[in-house]
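INTERNAL AUDIT FORM
Audit reference: QA-55
Scope: verify that the stored structure record matches its stored sequence.
Auditor: D.O.
Record contents follow.
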Amino acid sequence: MQKKWLVLFSFLAMAFTFVSIARSDESHLESLRKQFPYGLLGDDHGLLNVKDLARNATIGDEEPFSAKSNAYPYWQCLPVKDIALRCENTGYDEDEKSTLAILAVVAIGKERDQEYLSRRAFSLSRCRAFQSDWKRLSAGESYACFSGPFSSYGTNDFGKQTTYWAFDKFKTQKGCSSYFADECNLRQGK
C-alpha cells in the first residue's frame, strides 16, 4: 500500500513540475510580447530577455513585420541543426589589403529558407572569427536566435523560396556574437 502511495505521489510531483515549467515558459514569452509585441517572430525557446528586445527598439520604431519593414531588426529563433554559417570569399581587395568575404548564415526551412548576410564584405579573418564563435556558442544547443532587419524575399541558388535579412547578431544559451561592437552584453544572462 505504501508503495502505491509513493508511486502516486511521485507521479503527481512530476506532473506539477511539468505544469510549472510550462507556465513559466508561457509567462516568459508573454512578458516579452507584452513589452515588445512585434520584436520577436515566433518562439524564443527561452533564449532572449527584455534587454535583447529593448536594444533593438533603440535602433528603430518597432512595427508589425511586413515586406516594407526594412529598418527594424527583428529576432527569430531557429533550430541549430538546420543552420550553416559560411564565409563567401569575394577576393582580394587592394584598398583593404586583404581578402574579403560576405558572412552568410543559412537556415534551411521546410517551406522557406532564411538567409542572413553581412551588410558588406569584410576581412576573411573576421568572417572566420564569426564561424569560430558560431561553432563554440552553438555546440550542443538546440536553438539559436538571430537579429537583423528584413531585406527581401527571393529565390536562392537552388530555386527555394528564401527570406533575406541583414545580419546583426546571434544568441544561444552560451552567449552572443554581433556584427557591431558592443551589441552583445554577455553578462546580461538569459
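Auditor finding: record pair retrieved intact. The radius of gyration is 20 Å.
Action required: none
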